[in-house]
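Task: sequence design from structure.
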């Protein structure tokens, strides 16, 4: 992976984490407003209807808490993935540098075991000549 791909991958992680943070902050802000309105309505809206309304709001607030916790978990997972990817890329880069650039798919040096082109051509031509 070239450095521009590495950079764009890291940028994608950072943007994704940022979007999740924005969403979580927006949820928190809305939740704060709903709590505030709930408190002011609780003093004016009483009886069975008021209790039922309060329970609906409490259920909504709990669901928002669950969603925000999911956002936090996703932010953490993306952050950990970004760090792992950076570590793997750095390790791969160091392996290539250490090997002098001659790695196979298994990490071993590449050895040229094919016969030279001239000896192959000579033997092929020699077999055709009567």
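Answer:
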């Amino acid at each position: 992976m070239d450095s521009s791909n590495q950079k764009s991958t890291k940028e994608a992680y950072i943007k994704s984490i940022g979007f999740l943070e924005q969403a979580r902050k927006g949820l928190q802000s809305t939740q704060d407003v709903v709590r505030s309105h709930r408190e002011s309505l609780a003093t004016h809206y009483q009886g069975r209807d008021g209790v039922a309304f309060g329970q609906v709001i409490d259920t909504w607030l709990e669901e928002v808490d669950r969603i925000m916790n999911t956002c936090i978990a996703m932010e953490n997972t993306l952050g950990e993935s970004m760090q792992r990817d950076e570590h793997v890329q750095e390790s791969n880069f160091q392996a290539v540098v250490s090997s002098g650039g001659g790695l196979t798919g298994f990490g071993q040096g590449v050895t040229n075991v094919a016969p030279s082109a001239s000896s192959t051509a000579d033997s092929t031509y020699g077999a055709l000549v009567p």
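Helices lie at 3-44, 47-99, 117-128.
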